[in-house]
């Protein structure tokens, strides 16, 4: 299910970015280009962190930027930005930005469950932290053959 939303076309790698705001915008670019989200959704994700603090940081080096379901979202989607150098997100160093675009409160839950499993498995998480998009793709498509 995860690979239905997260594919090579929606994953990017960069050495570094200037700020967490730019990281969220950059991470969301593939979804914007595909018409999955509107520009307003990117602003909403950034505004949400400004208002609520770094609640999107779910694990060391990992953030799950998202905003209100269905607002500025045309279809369910996910995109990933991996960084070599962590960026400071309100006191938290982050190297992985996994953007979640949800149309409602349930359509994305299976993919989110799969991401949770990966985050809890140290070996799988190390693959994500490595930033190697080929290895990440292999990991998320494992079991689909």
From TrEMBL:
The phosphoenolpyruvate-dependent sugar phosphotransferase system (sugar PTS), a major carbohydrate active transport system, catalyzes the phosphorylation of incoming sugar substrates concomitantly with their translocation across the cell membrane. The enzyme II UlaABC PTS system is involved in ascorbate transport. It comes from Alkalibacterium olivapovliticus. Transmembrane segments: none annotated. The keyword Transferase applies. It is found in: Cytoplasm. This is Ascorbate-specific PTS system EIIA component. Residues 4-143 form the PTS EIIA type-2 domain. InterPro entries: Ascorbate-PTS_EIIA_comp, PTrfase/Anion_transptr, PTS_EIIA_type-2_dom. Keywords: Cytoplasm, Kinase, Phosphoprotein, Phosphotransferase system, Transferase, Transport. GO terms for molecular function: kinase activity.
